Amino acid sequence: MKLIYDVESKPAFRSLLVFAFQQVLAIMAATIAVPLIVGNGMSTAAALFGAGAGTLVYILFTQRKSPVFLGSSFAFIGSMSAAFAGAVSTAAGYAGLILGAVSAGLVYVVFALVIKKIGVHWVSSLMPPVVIGPTVAIIGLSLATSAVGNLQKSSATGEPTQWAVLCGIVALFATMLCSTYGKKHAKMIPFIIGILCGYALAAVLTWIGLSGGNTALQIIDFSSITALWADGVTVSTFFSIPDFSFLSAGWSQVDASYISTVFAAYVPVAFVVFAEHIADHKNISSIIGRDLLKDPGLDKTLLGDGVGSMVGAFFGGCPNTTYGESIACVAITRNASVATIVMAAIECIVISFLSPFVAFIASIPGCVMGGVCMALYGFIAVSGLKMVQSVDLDENRNLFVVSAILIAGIGGLSLTFGKVTITSVACALILGIVVNKMLAREAPAPKE
């Protein structure tokens, strides 16, 4: 792919601020969704701060060579819920979140040390394009249900409505038109333009719906904004310190039994996320035309991801992971500047202290984000399919490998062992590796 901004490029400061905010919008919905799903009083603002801090750690470890943002990991939602379920109090649960993230991060550190010792050649042997290509495609396709589900629902009522679909489609079309036909600046910020167009239409429809008492037209939930100004204009209306989980952690209530429960919930998931880590870095490598597994090296990307997860959990409770939305944003805008990712991380940290920004972002309706995510997730899927272009699908071996991965992933094959769930992406990847090795030597064609 011909990039407009390469990895080392540094856009002008004003442009950099806007490009970075686009990355923030791309990762925002998923990053704040994790603490909302887990509940127990977790702070979305703290999760934003943790994502920004974790990303800066990742950029440091990868020597500014990998343009990827780290955000709250969905893979650890079950682990986080288990940490709260096994705790004697919510405060002890916060301590469990930090302990769990540290244990998962240490798994990455061990992987990194082993890989530094033995190299990464085994990765290419274990996961050639015929395996990694369809797996990357599955990462995007597995998110399709989420995007379409959000597209159809009103954030104000939670009910499906055609008006929500209209707002999402407007956001999608505006994104596509700007990316395809826009001038240079519009082409670089298609998601910002798309989200603003969808939000504007949703705001008009919501105003009409509120004026006429028509709930079907009410798309935006303005409660986050109205709550902010409910007590009048004060300093806290504009600035507030995120509710960092570690400040209320009940370390005195943590015993050996609880620690073992947390470790059992987090460590196995780290092995699963390791596979997705490789798939994500293979994907971004194909986009920027550089093999990140060799330079800066898989050991350094793992260290960045692992330590970044620890930092993210320390501040926000959520372990971090590389985001497909961020990678897709790089692909669509052709902006691989690491400076953009650094600025996006800084903006996340700053925004977490600015109440109006947090409230506005929380008010962006899910249907608008769903429309934009149709493009983001689609690009992830297409990036994976592009990797398969070099594969000879006339060979039965390759055909079976790709078929097994696609069907297992799209079908949602997942396995649960106690508190550990192997995601559909990980299951598809493992199945693909097994099939590829099993059929390593095709039987000779029968003689005529």
Explain this structure:
With 448 residues, the protein is mainly α. It has 20 helices and four strands. The protein has helices at residues 13-38, 44-61, 77-85, 90-118, 121-126, 129-141, 144-152, 162-181, 184-188, 190-212, 223-229, 235-238, 256-288, 293-316, 324-333, 338-351, 355-363, 366-387, 396-411, 424-438, and strands at 70-72, 320-322, 415-417, 420-422. It has a two-stranded antiparallel sheet. Strand 3 and strand 4 form a beta hairpin. The longest helix has 33 residues, at 256-288.
Structure summarized in a few sentences:
This protein is mostly helical. It contains 20 helices and 4 strands.
SSE blueprint and pairings:
Elements: H1 13-38, H2 44-61, E1 70-72, H3 77-85, H4 90-118, H5 121-126, H6 129-141, H7 144-152, H8 162-181, H9 184-188, H10 190-212, H11 223-229, H12 235-238, H13 256-288, H14 293-316, E2 320-322, H15 324-333, H16 338-351, H17 355-363, H18 366-387, H19 396-411, E3 415-417, E4 420-422, H20 424-438
Antiparallel strand pairs: 1-2, 3-4
Helix pairs in contact: 1-2, 1-16, 2-14, 2-16, 3-4, 3-13, 4-13, 4-14, 6-13, 6-18, 6-19, 6-20, 7-18, 8-10, 8-18, 11-17, 13-14, 13-15, 15-18, 19-20
Characteristics of this structure?
two-stranded antiparallel ribbon, 4 strands, globular, 448 residues, mainly alpha
With helices defined by DSSP (H or I, 4 residues minimum), what is the helix count?
A: 20
Task: List SSEs in N-to-C order.
Answer: HHEHHHHHHHHHHHHEHHHHHEEH
Q: What is the share of helical residues?
A: 55-70%
Average pLDDT across residues? Answer: 87
Shape from CA axes? globular
As a whole number of angstroms, the C-alpha radius of gyration is 22 Å
Class of secondary structure makeup: mainly alpha
- Low-pLDDT parts are none
- Strand order of the main beta sheet, please? 1-2
Number of strands: 4
The main sheet comes to:
2 strands, antiparallel
The percentage of residues in β strands lies in under 5%
